[in-house]
Amino acid sequence: MSQTQQQPQYPPFQPQQPQRAARNGLGTAALILGIIGALSGLIPIMFWLAGILGVIALILGLSGRGRAKRGEATNKGVALAGALLGLVSLGLSVFGAYTTFKAVDDAVDEINKSVSDTGAKGTDKAGKDDKGSGAKDEAPAKGKALDAGDSVIYDDDLTITVSNAVTWNPSEYAAGHTKGNHAYKVTVTVENKTKAKFDSTLLTAEARAGKDGVDAEQIFDDKVGTGFSGSILPGKKATVVYGFDAPADAKNLTVEVSPSFEYDATHWDLKL
Length: 272
Fold this sequence. Notes:
Elements: H1 25-41, H2 47-69, H3 76-118, E1 123-125, E2 146-147, E3 151-153, E4 158-162, E5 166-167, E6 182-192, E7 198-199, E8 204-209, E9 214-215, E10 217-219, E11 231-232, E12 237-246, E13 252-258, E14 266-271
Parallel strand pairs: 2-14
Antiparallel strand pairs: 1-3, 3-4, 4-6, 5-6, 6-12, 7-11, 8-9, 8-13, 10-12, 13-14
Helix pairs in contact: 1-2, 1-3, 2-3
């Protein structure tokens, strides 16, 4: 009997498929753009560039991470780093925008304040001239005081008038009066011709007496020296009487009125 020799069986040959190259471009691009965006965000004025690059880096980083999860890319960590740097760039962009706009607003406010502070008119207004007209006089020379009864009109039309100094005898309960000195009453009138109410509590009045400019102490006696209170509505006016103590030999009283820190102070030279 003959035996049949069995031939060994081999699995069918399968051709080896070529390995696909890793698609790491998105993750690498995200990392580069994220780094540039974060560096740009360190400069507040470059907030716009940091914001744009941050958005792109975030999108590319998340897309690259998705590729890595599907096995199409091998740089999962790089893509994640790019996405995180994109978030950092966006945060720096928001902070830079806030800082830049705030700096611009502050600069504009300072310019407006400077213009307001230097724009006070030195125009004085006499009650009436020799012909009885109510025309405004020319502005007094710089460094010179106004006369009694004259008015100063500021740029916003706030008008302040100081009357002549009038002698009076303070009561025995008056504060600020020294025996042997003369007491004078000065009336200050504020007319609010602006479009907004004026906080009159900020107004201050001080005085100096004589050629040596000795401080004239303010006298408080009943309603004299109480100062303004509350606000003055547009189109309204308010009047307050101040009292000042001056040496007996003083020939003049220089009164300085400051409406508030937003206005320049104005001086009146009152003859005693």
